Target: DUF952 domain-containing protein
Amino acid sequence: MTDRIVYKILTADEQEHFTRMGSFAGSPVDIADGFIHLSDATQVTGTVDRHFSGQDGLVLVAVDLGLLDPAAVRWEPSRGGQLFPHLYAVLPIGAVVATCPLARNADGSVQLPL
Model:
C-alpha cells in the first residue's frame, strides 16, 4: 500500500492518556486483537459508522506511517476484504502529524485533519 497518512479514532480519555504518556498501546479492542487498528482516508467514515456510532467526544489522529518501523505495519484484509493498516507496536506520539475533534462534512463523511 502507498498511503502514508492513516488515522486512529480515539475517545477523549484515550487521547488525553496518549498525550500525557507520549505513546498509545491501544484501546481495549486493539489490545484484545494484538494490534492497533488504523484506517486509511477512504476507510475512516466506515470505521466511525461501524465501531463508534453514537459516541461523542471522539478525536481523529493522523499518523504518518513513514515515522513508524515499517516492519510493525501490516496491511491486512478486514471489513469486506479491504486491506486495513494494523500497527503491531506501540504508537509513539512522534508519529502523529495532526489531531482534531471528530466532525462530519455536509455529506456525512468524516472531516480529515490532513
